[in-house]
Design brief:
By secondary structure, the protein is α+β, with helices and mostly antiparallel strands. The protein has one domain: 3-Layer(aba) Sandwich (Glutaredoxin). It is globular and about 45 Å long. It holds the Pfam family ArsC. Belongs to the ArsC family.
């Protein structure tokens, strides 16, 4: 019995497409979610952040247009973690992608080598 992975992605993102292709090639079942149309809620983000073991800052798409347009590089340092999570939940374009989770583990972004070991099926 295989575990389905939830993948928050942006369909037009080349990196997301590469990640999804690799996950499928490795035999994983995927529940794909459009990160803008199905943006994770604040509660889901809290769970994803906890499962990732990464600092909250790693969930921001710092190279994205929305991040730069909102001048978040300067604003985030004055925000609480809760405010940052609410901000991420309000705009999926601010979230680094893809996010992959099995409900216990979570990865953010895509690196072929780490996906090969972290999300190897079987």
């Amino acid at each position: 019995m295989s575990t389905s992975l939830t993948v928050y992605h942006l369909p037009q993102c080349d990196t997301c497409r590469k990640a999804i292709k690799q996950l499928k090639e490795q035999g994983n079942e995927l529940d794909t979610r459009h990160i803008v149309e199905q943006t994770p809620t604040a509660e889901q983000l809290r769970e994803l952040i906890a499962a990732s073991g990464l600092p909250l800052q790693k969930f921001f798409n710092v190279s994205g247009d929305a991040y730069r347009a909102m001048n978040l590089k300067d604003k985030l340092k004055d925000m609480s973690d809760e405010q940052k999570i609410e901000l991420l939940a309000s705009n999926g374009m601010l979230i680094k992608r893809p996010i992959v989770t099995d409900g216990t583990r979570t990865t953010v972004g895509y690196k072929e080598d780490s996906f090969r070991t972290e999300w190897r099926h079987g």
